[in-house]
Amino acid sequence: MASLSLRHVTKAYPNGFVAVKDFNLEIADKEFIIFVGPSGCGKSTTLRMIAGLEDISSGELYIDGKLVNDVEPKDRDIAMVFQNYALYPHMTVYDNMAFGLKLRKTPKDQIDKLVQEAARILDLSHLLDRKPKALSGGQRQRVAMGRAIVRNPKVFLMDEPLSNLDAKLRGQMRIEISKLHQRLQATIIYVTHDQTEAMTLGTRIVVMKDGVVQQVDSPQNLYDKP
Ligand code: ADP
Ligand code: ADP
């Protein structure tokens, strides 16, 4: 859990294109923030700036009151889950989940404890020896989430995590994510095109267009207007 503060955050890519313009948002501890808006409106760019994968051109980003503009991604205590899973195909489920912890030189016995616990939460305990190609889409997505939760990050960024799944699995995973949010008490920022996901998961919804925040509101106010 963590609070985030984006103040006048702007992104101009090296080619001069301004993808995000004067983004202002205060995110409280444990909020579940949804980003919606047409393709190309700057949602992923904003997530990548929060993760530190993309420099902020101007403006400030604070996490728990600390200015993090110049903090390395690995030191931001943020985990990101993508729609294409980005699993390592040659590694087992176990090693995929352990990878980030190994990079951070976490002791082996602790890695084992964290991976086993995440596997239990995500119902992956029986699949730890498999390679990603021997998993279903939903299982792969759970591994991608497992890799994020083993680090127990303060903030989760999820970029259309369910968009490659069929409708039934999407419904199941939506419930999983909601439970995960409760259980981890994490702050989540979640990009989606799916109105059901936005309505059922979000505490607030940020509507973007052409790099600009158009509206920030509760799901009820945004979608339930008569
Ligand atoms: P969204 O996630 O809402 O689909 P993105 O943040 O991916 O939007 O992209 C926002 C805009 O920035 C798009 O017009 C995209 O083409 C542009 N863009 C993304 N990456 C780059 C880049 N590296 N250089 C220049 N323009 C980029
Ligand atoms: P390394 O990659 O350093 O050779 P290993 O892959 O041999 O490490 O695994 C080290 C530890 O991780 C093992 O002692 C074991 O506790 C745990 N481990 C690895 N794979 C599994 C698995 N499929 N299920 C449960 N625990 C595992």
TrEMBL record:
Record-level Gene Ontology MF annotations: ABC-type transporter activity; ATP binding; ATP hydrolysis activity
GO cellular component: ATP-binding cassette (ABC) transporter complex, substrate-binding subunit-containing
Keywords, ordered alphabetically: ATP-binding, Nucleotide-binding, Transport
ABC transporter domain segment(s): 4-226
Keyword field contains Calcium: no
GO terms, biological process: carbohydrate transport
Name of the protein this chain belongs to: Sn-glycerol-3-phosphate ABC transporter ATP-binding protein UgpC
Protein's organism: Brotaphodocola catenula
Gene: ugpC
